[in-house]
Every structure is written in structure tokens, then in C-alpha cells.
Amino acid sequence: MLEITTRLDAETVVEKLKAAIEDQGLKLVAHINGQANAAKIGVEVPTDQILEIFHPAYAVRVWEACKSAGIDIPLRIHVSEEGGLIHVRTRPASSVFAPWGSPQLDAIGAELDPKLAAVLDALEEVMS
Prior knowledge:
The chain is of the alpha+beta class and 128 residues long. The protein has five helices and five strands.
């Protein structure tokens, strides 16, 4: 698990993550805003958001390597608030693809792991 904890506000964190995702040549596939969805039913919850990220070129490679592995894409970044801090977590792509036992997926994971780490590292730069 890749993880970073910050005192930055959730809005800043999400915007910085979105910019870093683009900087790494990835695409934001979906942004699921859990607290906004909970508010629709009158419930207030702390920050809980998911950023789903990938890129069509990687998706095609995943499908070519192992069509069933498509269940594991897009990759996800979880932004949550606990104890007044914002936590950002993601699984390394290599860990996500490892159970498939595919050398091609292992190679894709190895390419994506540094990109995911760089996305989270972008927050460290802001906190410095």
C-alpha cells in the first residue's frame, strides 16, 4: 500500500492529485465523492473520495495480456479523513496485477508503480 497523510484540506488534496495524475500521463476515469453522495440522503460524513485512474493505452495492454484482469482496472486512489487528517492510499499496480500470474501484467504493473508513487509524492512537495 502506498500512503501519505497530510493536514491539507480535502479539496486541495484532490485538486493536487488530479494535476499529478495528468502530469504522469494518466487519466482520471471517475471521481466518486462519497461525502457529497451521503449529503444527498441527508447524512454528513468525513471526506471519503475515490479517484479512479488509468489510460486507454494501458487498458488495451491489460486486455491483451489477460482479458479477465480488466476487473482490476481502473486503479483507485482513496482519499479519506480520519482524526482531522487526510489520508491518501493506493495499491501499487504490481500488487493489483500480481494474482493473475501474467508476465505481461507484471510488466505493466512495473511501469505504473512509479507513476502512482509520483502522484502521491506530488502531495509531499506541496506539504514541504
